[in-house]
Structure to design on (260 residues):
């Protein structure tokens, strides 16, 4: 297992990267699952990390989880990657980020499939302007396919909790963004239990459902998957519509609520 090293600032592919692992990819193991349970059970842990570790303050820390399960073929996976990259390069998304109080977010992209197959594809990186957004978009566009297997939404959520616990930022909001085209087929205790662990840790889970195989998948995501403050589910009718849907989703996530 790659060791966790927090708060090491570095330039990678021109991106403002906030962490460093001993390898580019970080696979989910039993040890990290135990760590996940610990993180979820410690209420308020995400807000109490020391200032030495939380060097950068951001409006949101966002984990973007891309479906790499066996139900997704290579062309469909590529459509996800291309759509997400285009969304981050969009001036609309950049403007939404800049209009928030701090004007910056931290993002990490992961690929997910089975209960033991989650991989960090893009490490924690800051997006604050058009240059940083383009660099992140480039990094996303070059993500290779690394996962395959059964669908485990619960493991993807648990891995997202771990990633947020590793984020070397002080975030005002913590969000896991799950994109998928299927229901849970493997996992320890189901997506509802994983969702509850995330919500208990102060995390919001949003969903993007691709109605490629299950026409009522959005209803499924709204019940045991989405959770936390201001959660929502966006629908893409097929993979061709993913790019438009993920942009809508990012706009909704990055826009800050009105100040009361």
């Amino acid at each position: 297992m790659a060791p966790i090293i927090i708060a090491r600032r570095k330039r990678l592919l021109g991106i403002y990267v906030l962490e460093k692992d001993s390898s580019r990819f970080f696979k989910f193991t039993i040890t990290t699952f135990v760590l996940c349970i610990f993180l979820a059970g410690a209420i308020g842990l995400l807000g109490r990390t020391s200032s030495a570790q939380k060097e950068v303050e951001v409006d949101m820390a966002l984990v973007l989880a891309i479906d790499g399960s066996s139900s997704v073929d290579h062309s469909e996976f590529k459509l996800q990657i291309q759509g997400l990259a285009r969304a981050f390069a969009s001036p609309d998304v950049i403007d939404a980020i800049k209009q928030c109080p701090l004007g910056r977010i931290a993002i990490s992209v992961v690929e997910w499939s089975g209960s033991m197959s989650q991989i960090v594809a893009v490490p924690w990186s800051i997006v604050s302007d058009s240059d940083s957004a383009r660099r992140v978009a480039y990094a996303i566009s070059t993500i290779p396919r690394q996962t395959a297997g059964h669908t485990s939404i619960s493991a993807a959520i648990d891995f997202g909790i771990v990633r947020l616990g590793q984020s070397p930022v002080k975030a005002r909001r913590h969000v896991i963004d799950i994109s998928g085209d299927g229901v849970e087929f493997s996992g320890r205790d189901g997506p509802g239990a994983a969702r509850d662990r995330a919500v208990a840790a102060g995390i919001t889970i949003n969903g993007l459902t691709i109605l490629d195989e299950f026409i009522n998948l959005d209803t499924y995501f709204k019940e045991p998957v989405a959770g936390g403050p201001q959660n929502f589910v966006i629908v893409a009718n097929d993979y061709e519509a993913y790019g438009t849907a993920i942009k809508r989703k990012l706009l909704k996530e990055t826009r800050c609520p009105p100040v009361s």
Notes: Residues 10-254 form a domain with the Rossmann fold fold (CATH 3.40.50.410). Residues 1-15, 21-54 have pLDDT under 50 and may be disordered. The first strand starts at residue 10 and ends at 12.
